[in-house]
From TrEMBL:
Pfam families: IFP_35_N, NID
Ribosomal protein recorded as keyword: no
Name by which UniProt lists this protein: N-myc and STAT interactor
Subcellular location: Cytoplasm; Nucleus; Secreted
């Protein structure tokens, strides 16, 4: 329950800005399969907004020097409604509220398949037909493994050779014939995500 509450309180939705990237070199991988995947690592730090207390005001200046001069001076006297009021300028500290690393891996050998038709035949037959369908497809190739879930009408197809998954993903819809009927399957990248070094200050 506590974990669920944290996920609701600290849910973050933000678009990642476009960045120009330059290829500088290739690292040594533990296995050949590593080169098939696209891996991304995002360092995320969300700041807690400053909360004003009673009889406080927050002023923001375009130039940092102006704020520093006022802080060094300390006490200030201003006129408000023909009354003089003594004020004190103090620095503002914005503490980091959440820190974590988001690891994203886009598989280069797997694809997700959805909208698999629910037909009254055994699961093994559907797996065999999915394997044959993506093996004979113009964009497909030899299939290494098929994981099918009837309840969600989805499947995960793993190909044997590199590059086949990318070819399949160039088209988001693939025809699928079963029991003399033609259906359209939806395909999407197989993406794995997990958090590391999660901290709440």
């Amino acid at each position: 329950a506590k974990s669920s509450k944290l996920s609701q309180d600290f849910r973050i939705k933000r678009e990642i800005p476009k960045k120009k990237m330059k290829f500088t070199g290739m690292e040594n991988a533990e296995s050949d399969d590593t080169f098939l995947n696209t891996c991304c690592l995002f360092h995320i730090a969300a700041k807690i907004p400053f909360r004003l207390q009673q009889r406080q005001a927050l002023l923001t200046f375009e130039e940092e020097d102006v704020a520093q001069k006022l802080i060094r001076r300390g006490k200030h006297t201003v006129s408000l409604d023909n009354e003089k009021i003594d004020l004190k300028a103090m620095p503002v500290t914005l503490e980091t509220g959440i820190k974590f690393e988001l690891h994203v891996t886009i598989s280069g050998e797997k694809i997700n398949v959805s909208e698999v038709p629910d037909v009254p035949i055994p699961d093994e037959w559907i797996r065999d037909k999915l394997e044959l369908n993506f093996y004979k497809s113009k964009r497909g190739g030899e299939v290494k493994d098929v994981r099918y879930d009837r309840r969600s009408r989805t499947a995960i197809i793993t190909f044997l050779k590199p590059g086949v998954a990318d070819n399949c993903l160039r088209c988001t819809k693939h025809p699928f014939c079963i029991n003399e009927k033609r259906f359209m399957l939806s395909v999407s990248p197989s993406i794995e995500k997990h958090l590391e070094k999660f901290q709440v200050n």
